[in-house]
Amino acid sequence: MKRKILSILFALVLACSFSLMTAVPVSANPGGIELVATGDSTATWTTEEAKFGDYSAKLTMPAGTGWVNDNAEARIAISDVPTLSDVTGWSFWAKGLDAYYVPIEFYIDTDGDGTVDKIIVGQKMGSMTSEWVELNQTNMSMYMTWKDGYEWLWNWSKVQSKYGDATLLRVDIGYGSLGSNEAVTAYVDDFTLNDTTYVFEPPTKADILIGSGVPGKGLGEAPGLQKPFNPNSKAADHAGKK
User: Cα 213 to chain center, whole Å?
Assistant: First the structure.
């Protein structure tokens, strides 16, 4: 177990340098959530498990290669929290039998130019069970920064003390920043930041049609359009296109 943990920590430094460059969106939520996957990993909306609502994000990553070549994450654009010092609390829900706890990544701008300068990775040691667990700023036991050097920040208080003035641009939840010697599968549900909850539900048919520019005042209220397309089909990719 000790050897596995050490390999995971070492892999963090290697993997983060690839996660931004290679991730390709495979599913999007108009509320600010994208599911991204690379390599042999997958990130999909599913009804197999859900803590809230009907859906959760199912994340899978194969053994060994996740450190560099594979990522499976939920990506959340943040617009209503100016700096890390303004964060009063955050949490998300996850479950996965024998999978290590799902990491979280905070992408921050430290110099005010609107680009990512540091990535702060949070991780809880140990393995999840088949029960849903809430992960938050108090039970994540390891924080590490990447980009232009790295450092250990062992708790959230130290993160805010060091980078409280930094702007929070985005949050990623999922596998990729930490590798694994074993194949992992996990489910992730709603992320809450301060008083805002980012609901892990796929976009409805109306959301996709409106987002693609389809005209029509009643799209948002049409009864038949208030549910998502089948996540296993390609209908969402072609909706509203000629």
Answer: 27
Buried b (16+ CB within 10 A) or exposed e, 158-182: ebbebbeebbbbbbbbbbbbbbbee
Helix (H) or strand (E) holding 4, with range, is helix 2-22
- Can you give the pTM of this predicted structure? 0.78
Burial 110-147 (b: 16+ CB within 10 A, else e): beeeeeebbbbbbbbeeebeeebbebbbeebebbbbbb
Name 177's bridge partners. none
Which region, left, alpha or beta, applies to residue 97 given φ > 0 means left and ψ of -120 to 50 means alpha? beta
207 φ, ψ (degrees, to nearest 5): -60, -45
Q: Per-domain residue ranges for the chain?
A: 2-202, 203-242
The Cα–Cα gap between 22 and 186 comes to 21
CATH 2.60.120.260 given to domain 2-202 = yes
Reported as a single tens digit per residue, the pLDDT across 26-55 is 444 445 689 999 888 999 999 999 999 999
